[in-house]
Amino acid sequence: MTTTLGEFSVLPVSIPPLPSFKHAAVHYLYVRRNAPKVPTALDSRSLFLTNVPVDSTDLHLRGLFASLVGAGRFESVSFADERAAAAAAAAREPSADSLLPASAARLLRMSRKRKHTADEEERIEEELRSRLPDTWTRRVRKSGGTAVVVLADEKSVEQVLKAIAKTHKSKKYPTWGEGVEKKVPGLGSAWIKAHNRMCYPDKDMLQASVDAFSAVFARREAEAQELAKRLRNEPDEDGFVTVTRGGGRTAPASRNEAEEARKKMIQKAEKKKEELQNFYRFQLRERKKEQQQELVKQFEEDRRKIQELKERRGRFRPEA
Amino acid sequence: MDSNPAKRRKLENAEEEVEKALALASSSGLSMREDSSGLFMTKNAAGVFVPPRVSKSKIFVLETYELAVEVKLNKTALPGADDLLHRAKECIEKIESHDSLPIAEAASKLEEKHGIRVPFPEPRPPENSNYKVSFAKPAQFNVVGSYVSKTMVESQKDYGVDMVVVMPEEILQEKDYLDLRYFYKRAYYLAVLAVSLQEELGSSAKLSYEHLNGNHLCPVLALQPYRSKTPKTTRQFKADSSKKDYRIRIIPCAPEGFFPKSKLHLGASLNRKGQDEGSKTATQPTPFYNSTLVAEGCFLSYLKLFRQIERKCQGFKDACRLGRVWLQQRGFEGHGSDGGFGHFEWALILALLIQGGGSRGTAALSPQLNSTQLFRAMIQFLSVTDLSEKACVLGAGERPDLQEAVKSGPIIYDSARQLNVAFKMSPSSAAFLHQHAKWTRSLLNEDDVDKLDATFILKADVPFQSFDLVARLKYDGALDESVTADCRGRVWEFRDKVYRILKRALADKELGARARLIHICSKERSSWPLTADSSSPPEDPIIEIRILFDPLNMARTVDRGPTAGASAEEKEECEKFRRFWGEKSELRRFERDSIREALIWTSTTPFELCEEIMRYILNLHIKIGYVYGDLTFYGNEFSALLPLKHTDTATFNAARKAFSDFEKEVRELEGLPLHVRQIAPICPELRHASVKPPSFGPSKSGPRPMECVISFEASGKWPESLAAIQRTKIAFLQMIGKLLEQDESREVKTYVGLDNAKSDEENLAFLDVVYESGASFRLRIHSDLEETLLDRQVKDKTVEQHVRTKATTLLANFRRLHTYLPLHTQSINTYVTRFPALSGTIRLLKHWFSAHKLTSHFTEEFIELVALHVFLVPYPWDAPSSAHTGFLRALLFLSRWDWRLEQLVLDTGDDVTAVDREAIDTRFHTWRTIDPRLNHCVLFVATAYDPSGTGFTRLAGQPKPSNVVATRMTALAKSACRVVKDEGLDLVVKKLFVHSNKDYDVQICLNSKALKSAQRTYATDDPEGRGGDGGGSGSGGDGGRASKFKNLDERTGQDMLPIVQHPSDVLLEQLNTTYADGGPLVFFRGEPDEDNVIAAIWNPHMCERRRTFKVNLPTSYKPVGGVMEVEVEGGVALVEGVAEVRRVVEEEEEQVDVNKEAIVSEIARIGGDLIEEILLPKGGVM
């Protein structure tokens, strides 16, 4: 069995048989030192895992590493999908496309400045409160996903990699999900039932979250307006003053007006054109010619279509 | 147009008809639009009519032209026919004449000497009769029929080459037309021919007798050449398949004009023998006998006529071929038991219309017309002439009074030859022909429909696809009546009698016709050997009765007969009614104090009602039907499959009623900041289209709410941000819920639930309203600003591509939910009332999709639209009038729909204009150009309300179904249609719904008990209830509070929460997001309630190929162990070469395979106790 693939070490994990599927299987995780494009401080004591099982949780991986190098080495794990969600949330925050009125968001982007105020933390907390309650006790990850595991120290990283190499020799693979049975919410019917239950959150809780959200939203809107006002008066670093509209409301309305005006103009032009049609004899003549050509064209087109049909279906043959 | 009304009145019948048809077409505004092309005039100076208008696209003309060329029979297709004809002729010419002998003596002489019997018609000549027969050389030979006209077509059932042998005048007498004498002589003549032909040609052809077109008076001799049996090479064999089996029919006939026509008119009674005993019947006319006699003398005359017309009219032959194909696809043949209207009759009528047809020698049709126009004209002619109602006279000349004669059978009278061309037709086949012509006419008048397939290509006589009810009647004992004077044969007489009875019983206009069409056909023995007698009874004495319902009238359980009044007229009416219906008829008092004769039936469904009536009335009048074996009914199995009950409609209506009550209550709520503009239902339960009718009241699982959307008056108060709009909606829902619950008289519970949304911009929540009475609804809110914002985002070129893609998906979703679905529901509801069979068709079709595990890949709306399509474009038939015909035709459509190249456009609401169609076409072709591999759009279904064509065939940016699944659907439909066609009436309906699970790689069998328990959730359940990881016990999730004893369980008496999603659906959805989205597995499952097995196949694109390892692989992979074989192959000659080889080795090392065991075991862990067992039907995992 291959022990490494490129720079990854292969970590086989044995999966015990289940009542519904009575075959034991081996799952392969691929592990290497974490080396992201943008280095962070934790890189030296973290491992990059790919092909994590879809039912992985914190505890699962903790158990796995404990069986490799003993307890106490595992610090934390972050899964790719969670990281992506967090990144999206973080990315959204400055530009705030969705949480802000469209015009304000544009303005914010233009200002390219962000105040780092003291109430930042309070804000984050408020935003957390405005989130809707989760409807799952536990999420299933996408197949073949990745995760980053942070260990206690650099030495543990070495040890883990060594332990992985050893499992290949001893053929004693760590077992998946050992010792976590009672600690994580189960999957299966209980999980689905819980989901169906959690889709109906408590009404007051829901109301609170909606209220929190509207508070955030109202404040943001006010901020944006203020910003707009300020920008109208302040020249930027190149000495230009940005021209902005008063509020967010006026834009769509005037857009509608413009649309209508355009329609009217087109109508007028059409009417004028119509009046001059069939006015001169040459126009009539040309029109007739055009019609004839159109007919010929149509005929040719039809012929072509028939040919196509014939090729496609083989033959025109009545069904027996 | 002819301006003189007085003149017009004098026109001959046929012209009147064509004229009428023309007026009809032009009044409907369809005709004369194309005049500028010069191709299609309406009436030229000579007063010649052409058929009205050709469709806008002339493509049909070109198509039929191609078809006529294609079906033309190859010259060499009937090998050796000419040769055989010559030999037969020579042989006949050599026969010696002999002088007259008494008939009995001559016959027995033949039998003794040659062992050949004389095929005398029934009744046979008496032993002691003094008729004399003799033989002389034939006056003339001639090959007639489609062989000489070369109008045979490729796909004919059998090929007959007809040679007529005209008997010389000297052996006949003028008086022979009386009492079958001519037919006895003819039979003897035939037998003599048979003797010598058997001697001469017996080695190269098989000789047998048969009846000419099933006419018992006219036996003919058939020669079927033996095929050479020498072993062939494959090449020869290939050439051979184009060669057809054929037979030569030798037909003796009378010299032209030998019998005085004036004596042979339809009203004459010429066969008086055997009638003398009965006193009244002595003068009963014998129209069939008379017409046969006339026809005997017309062969050559018609041959001449055809030659003439062929020379005169270029398109005639092709039109005959087209007609032949058209008739054949509908099961019509010249044979009396196949309708009696075949190619000959078609050609004859066409020829008569071209030659004369009009008054004073003017022609009804111009010889300048092309074949397509002639075909259309014929269809037009047949569709306006109901032969069973009114006699049709063609050609100038003496015009007899046919009013009386038409009662005994359909009449097409060729006045030049004084022959009723339609004498072989029965009233039932005339009505059937009329109906088919009408259907085809309306098809030809349609604009945007493919005409070729429905007119010529499709086989339109598959019983279950065409008829609502088919019954087989065994008539064995019923035929013991003596032969009637008219000599039509017992079977035909019996068939027509059954028809008359059923027509009166089922298609009585006074009562309101229950059946639109009654078609009866009989199968008869075709040929018998020369040495046998013709009168032996048929082996399979069965007639088939096929009925097309009028779905509204057929469902009637009480028939109201005539009023029982005091006047003599009324009394007579009642008497007649009672005589026909027997003791079933009873007097009843109806509203407004009218007392009527009435019939009360006990069955409930249309099919059963029809069966009950037929059994009763056939038993009453011909003592057949109550014995089970005698009368067998086919076609009811379909409704038994899916319990399609007659009460279902009521249940659906109750759901609608509950919905409108709910709507009213919401509208009346006070305190909502905005006015409610509309609440629209969007779920199949509220449009009569769910497989199971909606259920009210307590059930073992939580209530399943019916979905609807609510929209408010336009308002500027919506916040201008998608996420904020969604939160505002939640607040709104909370408010509606609170307001509804406030009034305690309503007895209603509301729950706000969260959608499984992936981002803040999607719809986040819904409101479930559960009434104590059992009805429950799920409400979502429409905000018009949302659409504007999304639309703006889609069109905004300054934002990033992924944002725009996401906005496009969201917008499509929004439109589906708030625009298309409400309109779709509305339109299906309209059509369900217009077509009573539509609801059943939809449900059967959905059941079929479910049985084949396709449901999870299709939207319900798509299936509904497919079903609707066969109602809107029903050709070659009419709109289906029962669920099973609709279902089978929908399958037929699916099997023939080439969705790669054709879009489906449904004209819902009759407002798709040509411009719209063009726009839809363009859109479809754009899809196909930008996505030729069908990764994004597979099926394209446009409707009047959804011109985008993908509203119901794409979901969340993915095609639904995918290419693979759509191909599977087509394949399944194809094999189903093949079974339907091959097995005919013996079809075992269940077979269509049986699905083999063998093809799947993985089968996930769900535990139905766990599923059921997962459908019950209570508000007091602890959502964090911890069970074991994966394999916990079944009750693990109930949080320990569920007690073994019901009275101790604290949840007893508590309300269950509504079901957000069926557990099986949740699981499938999770599996799909984990594995299916372009991943290693494709999952299949039917309706969640019925199908407990989720099946899956490995995606071949992914699993059959090894991959090089990289970081973001799409699924779980395992390294390939020990692959080092390629190592040394490159050699080590050069330094660069070494580097090359090493790279190859490295790549080999990094190959990975899909880790199937691990994936299956992951699935087992996700499903936990919900999964009973995972099966791998194809053996191991790999």
Automatic annotation (TrEMBL), chain A:
Name a single GO biological process. Answer: rRNA processing
Pfam families, from UniProt?
RRM_Rrp7, RRP7
| Start and end residues of each Rrp7 RRM-like N-terminal domain | 8-189
The family database entries (Gene3D superfamilies) matched by this protein are listed as: 6.10.250.1770
Spell out the residue ranges making up region: Disordered: 237-261
Q: GO cellular component annotations, sorted alphabetically?
A: CURI complex; UTP-C complex
Domain Ribosomal RNA-processing protein 7 C-terminal span(s) in chain numbering: 199-319
Query: What are the coiled-coil residue ranges?
Result: none
Recorded family membership: Belongs to the RRP7 family.
Report the protein name in the record. Answer: Ribosomal RNA-processing protein 7-domain-containing protein
Its source organism is Diplogelasinospora grovesii
Q: Give the taxonomic lineage as stored in the record.
A: Eukaryota, Fungi, Dikarya, Ascomycota, Pezizomycotina
From TrEMBL, chain B:
Q: Could you tell me where the Gly residues compositional bias lies?
A: 1028-1040
Question: What segment(s) does the record annotate as region Disordered?
Answer: 1016-1046
The keyword Nucleus is annotated on this UniProt entry: yes
UniProt keyword RNA-binding, yes or no: yes
Enumerate the Gene Ontology biological process terms: rRNA processing; tRNA export from nucleus
Task: Alphabetically list the UniProt keywords.
Answer: Nucleus, Ribonucleoprotein, Ribosome biogenesis, RNA-binding, rRNA processing
Q: Name one GO molecular function term.
A: RNA binding
Q: What Gene Ontology cellular-component terms does the record carry?
A: CURI complex; small-subunit processome; UTP-C complex
Q: Which ranges carry the Nrap protein domain?
A: 161-310, 316-459, 464-623, 640-831, 835-994, 998-1174
Annotated family: Belongs to the NRAP family.
Q: What name appears for this protein in its UniProt entry?
A: U3 small nucleolar RNA-associated protein 22
